[in-house]
């Protein structure tokens, strides 16, 4: 009998990047133990030992080996359990390069701009920031049209790497829409992304692991009030 694999995930319930790991593990039907961390209080010894550089989540521990950074974890899950579930990364090198490029754009440029625009106290900075966010969504709209090849997801018929990357932020987007009365994903401007967002959040793999929008909205409101 094969030895049972030990898979542990350290995270926080509200983190979109932790949701990435949860979605990938579910796509691959991997059983794992989840450990909730308190990043605002006392971080566990396991977290401090496993990620001494950043001391942040997510952290995946597979048979005693530690894997860090959310998209790196998603790739590791895809490659390690490649015989289980759909492939997360595209099989063709060009398609993989596209998925990695646009995921890097989301993480390094688009989402940081969105967060800065929603948190700033300067009205001018908010207007300019949200304009840049909208321009980024138009770029992602075009990317979806090209990458999805007319299918429901960036990954085609099933959720893939880019879906997990951008989709993990959808709950925060929708929570901020409710809090601030903004329309961020506008159906008239980005119809493909608008439809994709609904399909992603209603997918059985996703909706069981991402937090509820109202719960995130309350958490965001509490966090913003404590920072002010």
From TrEMBL:
<keyword id="KW-0963">Cytoplasm</keyword>
<comment type="function">
    <text>Is involved in the conjugation of reduced glutathione to a wide number of exogenous and endogenous hydrophobic electrophiles.</text>
</comment>
<keyword id="KW-0216">Detoxification</keyword>
<dbReference type="GO" id="GO:0009407">
    <property type="term" value="P:toxin catabolic process"/>
</dbReference>
<dbReference type="InterPro" id="IPR010987">
    <property type="entry name" value="Glutathione-S-Trfase_C-like"/>
</dbReference>
<feature type="domain" description="GST C-terminal">
    <location>
        <begin position="92"/>
        <end position="225"/>
    </location>
</feature>
<dbReference type="InterPro" id="IPR004045">
    <property type="entry name" value="Glutathione_S-Trfase_N"/>
</dbReference>
<comment type="similarity">
    <text>Belongs to the GST superfamily. Tau family.</text>
</comment>
<dbReference type="InterPro" id="IPR036249">
    <property type="entry name" value="Thioredoxin-like_sf"/>
</dbReference>
<dbReference type="InterPro" id="IPR040079">
    <property type="entry name" value="Glutathione_S-Trfase"/>
</dbReference>
<dbReference type="Pfam" id="PF02798">
    <property type="entry name" value="GST_N"/>
</dbReference>
<dbReference type="InterPro" id="IPR045073">
    <property type="entry name" value="Omega/Tau-like"/>
</dbReference>
<protein>
    <recommendedName>
        <fullName>Glutathione S-transferase</fullName>
        <ecNumber>2.5.1.18</ecNumber>
    </recommendedName>
</protein>
<dbReference type="InterPro" id="IPR036282">
    <property type="entry name" value="Glutathione-S-Trfase_C_sf"/>
</dbReference>
<feature type="domain" description="GST N-terminal">
    <location>
        <begin position="5"/>
        <end position="85"/>
    </location>
</feature>
<dbReference type="GO" id="GO:0006749">
    <property type="term" value="P:glutathione metabolic process"/>
</dbReference>
<dbReference type="GO" id="GO:0004364">
    <property type="term" value="F:glutathione transferase activity"/>
</dbReference>
<dbReference type="InterPro" id="IPR045074">
    <property type="entry name" value="GST_C_Tau"/>
</dbReference>
<dbReference type="GO" id="GO:0005829">
    <property type="term" value="C:cytosol"/>
</dbReference>
<keyword id="KW-0808">Transferase</keyword>
